[in-house]
Amino acid sequence: MAIRPQHGEVYYPSEEVIARARVKDWEAMYKASIEDPQAFWAKEAEELEWFRHWDQVLDDSNPPFYKWFVGAQTNIVHNALDRHMKTWRRNKVAFYWIGEPGDTRTISYRELYNEVNRFANVLRGLGVKKGDRVTIYMGRVPEIVVAMLATVKIGAIHSVVYGGFSVEALRERILDSESKVVITQDGGWMRGKVVPLKDTVDQAVVQTPSVEKVVVVQRLGPEVKPVNMVPGRDFWYHELMASPLAEGPSPTEVMDAEDPLFILYTSGTTGKPKAILHVHGGYMVGTYTALKYVFDLQDDDVWWCAADPGWITGHSFIVYSPLVLGVTSIMYEGAPNYPTPDRWWQIVETYGVTAFYTAPTAIRGLMRYGEEWVRKHDLSSLRILGSVGEPINPAAWKWYYRVVGGERCPIMDTWWQTETGHFMITPVPTVPLKPGSAFRPFFGQVAEVVDDEGNPVPPNTEGYLILKNPWPAMLRTLYGDPERYVETYWSRFPGRYFTGDSAKIDEDGYFWIIGRVDDVIKVSGYRLGTAEIESALVAHPDVVEAAVIGVPHEIKGNAIHAYVVLRAGLAGTPELEKELIEFVAQQIGKIARPEKIHFVDKLPKTRSGKIMRRLLRAWTLGLPEGDLSTLED
Ligand code: WTA
What we know:
Blueprint: H1 15-20, H2 26-35, H3 37-45, E1 56-59, E2 67-70, E3 73-74, H4 76-80, E4 93-98, E5 104-108, H5 109-125, E6 133-137, H6 142-153, E7 157-160, H7 167-177, E8 181-185, E9 188-190, E10 193-195, H8 197-204, E11 213-217, E12 234-236, H9 237-241, E13 255-256, E14 260-266, E15 274-279, H10 280-294, E16 302-305, H11 312-325, E17 328-332, H12 343-351, E18 355-358, H13 360-367, H14 372-375, E19 384-388, H15 394-404, E20 411-414, E21 425-426, E22 440-441, E23 447-450, E24 463-467, E25 477-478, H16 482-490, E26 497-505, E27 511-516, E28 520-523, E29 526-529, H17 530-538, E30 543-553, E31 557-566, H18 574-587, E32 596-599, H19 613-621
Parallel strand pairs: 4-17, 6-7, 6-8, 7-14, 8-11, 11-12, 16-17, 16-18, 18-19, 19-20, 31-32
Antiparallel strand pairs: 1-2, 3-13, 4-5, 9-10, 14-15, 15-25, 21-22, 23-24, 24-26, 26-27, 28-29, 30-31
Helix pairs in contact: 2-3, 5-6, 7-8, 10-11, 13-15
The chain binds 5'-O-[(S)-ethoxy(hydroxy)phosphoryl]adenosine.
C-alpha cells in the first residue's frame, strides 16, 4: 500500500525514479525490517565478505553495550578495497579529485588499493601496531583517504581532526587519544588562501608526549608553503612511499567485528569533546546499507558527498560506504563559492554527478547569489539530492528541488548523528516528500517523540526524539569513558537511545526535526558545545564569566552569541569584542567564532548557581520570557 499523506505540501517521485529504485515498496520493507531487525541486518551483512561468519547477529545481554555480528571477523578495508580487486571494479574510478586551483586527479580502485598497501607498510615500519591511535589532520586531498584506510588496514584506530580546528583543539584531541603518529599536509587551499596545516601540527605536538612521528603530505610544495621538518620526527609522505619501508606484501589485518575502527571527537553537553567509538563490522554493514537504499547508488552513478572527511558525514559517506559499495565519488578540495559561486555546479556538469549530498547552510548560502549561477550549467545528470546536518527550511528545500534538481530529483533529508554512523530518520527515493520533513525511521529502527516522562506525545506536539532499537553502526561507547556513554545516551529514558534533539510527528507520521535540546549548537551544520566556547572565553585574561547561546540565523541556521562578564573595572568596547571573537577562533577554530559578544555585569542564574541560558536566549530574541519584571532577582 502506497503512502498517501493527507496534510501539507507533498512531492511525489516520478516514474523514472520509481523504475530505477531498489526500494519499491517502502512500507512493506520497513514493516518486515522492524518485525525482525536482526534478520534484516543479517541479510545485508551477507552481501559483504567476512573472514569468519558470525555466531550471533546481536548480543544484547549487557545493554547499552550492544554487540553485533558476534564472533565474526572482517576488516572494513577488505570490503572497501581488497575484494574489488577480484572484479572489474579494480579498474573503476574510485575518486575524481579536484583541487581548488583547478588541478585534478583520477584515482582508480586499483591505484587506491596499491597506495593504501604501501602506506600501510610505511605505518608498520614507523612502529604503528594494532590498537594504536593515529591522528589525521588534513584537508580534502586523496591522501586523507589513503591515511585513514592504511591505518585501519593494519588494525590501528584513526582519530581524524577536522583541518579547521586550531592548535588547542588539535592538541586536546591528540592528548586524549594518545596518538603515536600524526599525519598531516604542508597545507591546503581554501578560498585562494593557504591553510597552514603543518604549522598548526608543529605547535600542537610540542606538548603531546605520545607523538613519535609526524608524516607530511606535500600538497603545496616549498615555493607555496615552506614548512619546518624536525629531523627524526617529521617525514615526507612521498619519501616514505618511495623508500624500502613501503615495499613487500601488505596483508589486511584480521579484525573481530567488534574491534575499534575509529574514534571521532564531537561536542556534547559538558566541557570536553566526546570520543565516539565505532567498530569494523557493524559500522561497515550499517553505512553500506544506508547509502545503498537511500541514495540508491548503482554502477553508473557519480556520487558527491560535499562534506569534509573530518566529520562523520565524510567518514561514512566520502570514505567508507562509497568504497564498500564500489561507487565512483567526487572529492573537491575547496570552497563552493570560489572563485565564483557556480564552482560546485561547474563540477557537477563536468563530471556528470548523479547524486549530490550537502548541508542546508550551503544551499542557503548559494541561494543568495541567485539562480543564474546554477542555470549557467547543465545539471541534467543529477537524479537525486541529499541534505544533512540541520533542519532544512522549506524555502531552501524548494529552491534546491526546483533550481538544482530541475524538479526531477527527490531530496533525501537525512537525520543522523556522529553517534549513529548513518541516517536514522530518512526518506528513500520512492516515498512522497514534504519539504522540511526527514520522513520516517530507516529500516530496522523505531523512533518516537516523547514527553519528560518518556510517553509518546500526540501528533504535531514537540517532544524528545528517541530511538528504540539498537542498530549495527551505533557507537559502542565513548572511548575511555564508558560511564559517560551510559549517562549521556541511555539514562534520560532508560533502555532507549536519547538523541539530544526535539522533534514533532505529524498526522501522516512524518518526522519534523526541530533542534538540539541540550547545550549543543549547530552552526552552519557544525556541531559545537556551549561549554567549549565558554571555556575558550574564560581563558582570556579579561573575562571572568561567559555564557554562550545559539540564536537563529538566516544562513548558518544558528549563530553564536556570548554573554560575557569582564574583570571589575574593565569596559566592554568594540575592540575588545573583536579581540574576544578572534580569541575563540584561536582557541577552537574559526567555526566557533561568536557572531556577537554581549557585555553584562552579571549572568542570570538559578538559586543553585546554574546559568539560565533560556533566559539569555529570550533576551536576545526579545521574547516575552525575557521580560525581567517577572523575575524575583
Ligand atoms: C542535527 C551530523 C535536522 C541534529 C550527521 C543532530 C539534523 C546533529 C539533520 C548531529 C537533519 C543532522 N535535520 N537536524 N537532516 N541531520 N541534524 O553529530 O541536531 O555533527 O543531533 O552529525 O545534527 O550532528 P553531527
